[in-house]
Amino acid sequence: MKALPASFYNRPTLNVTEELIGKVLVHDVRGRRVAGIIVEVEAYIGESDPACHAAPGPTKRNAPLYGPPGRAYVYFNYGMHYLVNAVTEKEGSPAAVLIRALEPVEGVDTMVRRRGVKTDPGGRFSTASSENRPPGSVFTRRLCSGPGNLTKALAIDLRQNRSDLTTSRLRIEDHGITPDKVTWTPRVGIRVGTDREWRCCWAGHAGVSGRVARVKD
DNA sequence: CGTTCGATGCACT
DNA sequence: GTGCATCGAACGT
Q: How far apart are the C-alpha atoms of A57 and A148, rounded to whole Å?
């Protein structure tokens, strides 16, 4: 399956944001392919967006945001989580799309092991009914739900920062999957820039993360 | 169902 | 020293 070309990312970020829903994030580690359908993302656009890491201007950490589109921007947060973004727009225009949730489709056993969760058939990581999923896939709906959870399941860390999503073992592919409908809401887990409705979800999808917007003072 | 809170490390002021 | 683009356990209703 072919990865999306750089031209896909070299466009207005909100267009890329919406069209990433249904695409497939893949990580190949030592020949072990693990993948999930993207069902929830958020846009972070430019130095004028107070929630974007580019808001303070260029720094060592946010440098990938200023780089070429189609690269990964991975950073470490809260002392324990890695978060992965796809860099968008032309070089010099700092913007990216945060990947917040996946529906697991390949390497579920590997994801379960990396997450360290128990596969309790009756519990919260159990299979769930879902339409629009490839036949035969096991849908463990919480396995890759949340930006910190999915990087753990896919073994994404700072080694993948600046990886080329069009050619490297961390890639985003088009499998011809399209959501029936997407929903735009305010972004989640931030204290500033909550007025922008730049979170895009596969409407009604069970894999969307359960986090709620924080109340502003 | 809801809210609160501790874990944990680093970039940035 | 402060504040995170989080998570899940532990509580309250």
A: 25
Task: Say if A209 falls within a structural domain.
Answer: no
HSE (side-chain half, CA atoms, 13 Å) at A52:
26
How confident is the model at residue A211, as a pLDDT? Answer: 64
Q: What's the CA gap between A105 and A13, in Å, rounded?
A: 26
User: Does the residue A38 lie in any domain?
Assistant: yes
Overall domain count for chain A = 1
In a domain, A211, yes or no: no
Mean pLDDT by 10 residues, chain A (217 residues): 96 98 98 97 98 97 98 97 98 98 94 82 47 49 93 98 98 97 95 95 89 46
Provide the CA A81 to C1' C6 distance, Å, integer: 7
Three-class DSSP labels, A125-159: CCECCCCCCCCCCCCECCCCECHHHHHHHCCCCHH
Domain that holds residue A179: 6-202
Q: What is the pLDDT of residue A129?
A: 42
The reply to whether A11 falls in a domain is yes
**What CATH number has the domain bearing residue A99?**
3.10.300.10
Q: What is the pLDDT of residue A42?
A: 98
Distance of CA A153 to CAs A114, A165, A178, A179, Å?
5, 18, 23, 23
The separation, in Å, between residue A124 CA and nucleotide C12 C1' comes to 22
**pLDDT at position A124:** 52
**Bases of strand B lying below 7 A from some protein CB:** 3, 7-13
